[in-house]
Write a structure and sequence with these properties.
The two termini are 15 Å apart. 26% of the residues lie in helices and 41% in strands. The protein has five helices and 15 strands. The chain is of the alpha+beta class.
Length: 222
Amino acid sequence: MVETQKGELKRPLLINGRALTAEQQQKSDKRIRQFVRNPAALRKSLNEKNQDAARSQRLLKMLPDAFHFNYGERRGDIIQLNFAPNPSFHPPTHEAEVFHAMEGSVWVNSKEARVEEITGHLIHEAKFGGGLLGHLNKGGTFDIKQAEVARGYWEMTLLKVQMKGKALFFKTIGVQQNYSRSDFRQVPDDLTLAQAADILRHSNAAVRPTAAAVREVGVRGH
């Protein structure tokens, strides 16, 4: 995967743990060429990703008010903060309702003042509009990790969501998802889509199959 100012270009290396057939490779190449010629679909995807990122930021800003915290383990500079819902907090949105129905842990890098991981699980069922607008069952879990992939630049490296139900708040995040990213390399900020496509065509990165995860080779502009 290569990120540009206009969006992300992706090329599959393995599908279900197997190398692409000639037909699958042709379809992938055709899709990339179409995006280069007409990047409107990429821009839409980028807009949806940015909207989800903004929603996530709003939820994170609610953390101090939505939960009670206590200290857990400490691993060098990494501090665990366990959280549970604050009963006096009233969620202002459906997203916040799901957020407030969880308990779990936040792992903070005290040296960098960054959150490295958030894990949680739903402690009761969440219903929206009496269930007409969606619901999520008790017991669902999530795990999000981020890491410093270049000096001063942090990116999400893991998103694992295992929920049962239906919620359509996020365009790019599903209730059943296992997604990891690794092998980041910096590319120029002004990289064009054509140049990104050329990087994908000449990429020889080796990827080992995994049981139930999507592993992306990320090439990221700083």
